[in-house]
Amino acid sequence: MNLVVFEDSLADQLHPANTGRPTYAITIGSFRLIDWLRQLEHRLVGWVRPYLFEIQAADYPDVDNQVDLRQDWSLLVNARIVPSPAAFQVLKLIAKRQAPCVMQSETETFVALLPTSYLRSMATTPSTGTMANSVFSDPSLKRILASVDPPPQALPIQLETVQHPHQLVQSQLKIIGQCLQHRLDGGRFQQLQDGLFVGQGVQLPRDYVVNAKNGPVLIDDGASLGPYTYLAGPVYIGPKSKIIEHSSIKDAVCLGHTTKVGGEVEASIVEPYTNKQHHGFLGHSYVGSWVNLGAGTCNSDLKNTYGEVKMEYAYGKINTGSQFVGCLVGDYSKSAINTSIFTGKLIGVCSMVYGFVTTNVPSFVNYARHFGQVTEMGPNVMVATQARMFARRQVTQRECDIKLIHDMHERTRRERLLSEEPLSL
Fold first, then answer.
1. What's the chain's average pLDDT?
2. Three-state DSSP class for 50?
3. Cβ-Cβ contacts under 8 Å for 185 (sequence gap 6 or more)
């Protein structure tokens, strides 16, 4: 069977979280959708935005870019599905079926199981028996579903998807408990005390406090904990992560592998290779990879009025329905010391922010609005910065990494053109 994870027309709404990665690689509740799909043990195919083809091939070598038309069945899975254990069980059951079926709402398709023959209309290299990678548009999917005879059975179950960036953290708050329990059920973690579970090679200090009243604390292989740290579950600390002394990590936090985190972090997602080593508050926020938050950087996740937070996106204003919404920071962005980020703000990829962040920040800018300066930054600056950051972590800078920087710069050009801030080079 082909197991095809596809990005639909709503994928672009998740900027900046998925600007530098396939949508299936966003972390929620300590898992990515790709982690669950691998467990189904079928032939993986990724239909992603074209500029991510090379990154997908390099970082996810087990994900093919072509559908094998010789396979009898193909299971199509929306890349925006929230990666929960419950969703995995639904996908597992559908993958065992031998009849066409579809799970969809009025606005989106979650899953479709189809005979692979119905995908031949998209084949560009029929002589090889494979389908070349292409952008899988919503009209294409609707046409394919309409052509199936007999029509696929409509399944009543609906899976939760992420449609807006602020829903990443909201989804984590819902699923982190079941995600951590799934990890514990695997038997890989050793329980050291009530609510504290560790992997192999974890370094713990003599003095620390664990509060497991609301959920467990999991510290994965090779991670280390500084002295006088407070951990209040549910919390997941990824492999080779480093928690700085006197830190407070609490209430639904997931830290990716090789992160360095200090200060106070609450209800947030931090992707791999990101640094927040110093004092400062991060709450109800999503932070991408290779981000550095300078000492004293704080964000607000609550309005002074205690009202629900409204987000300003490129496609319109959205009421989040929540009192607590922090910031969303794209890959490779940086904050200077004592930066203050206001409630519900977006910071694009590859930007540098200073002072007070009172508006959304476009990608590839130096943002010092408080000082009257907002300037565009070319991709070569970030390529050089990327090389230095990679070298510090003993990571090799590849041609596809350099190309991604340039592609993201081009892809976010309109974002800078539409910015309310006057930009200068």
1. 93
2. helix
3. none
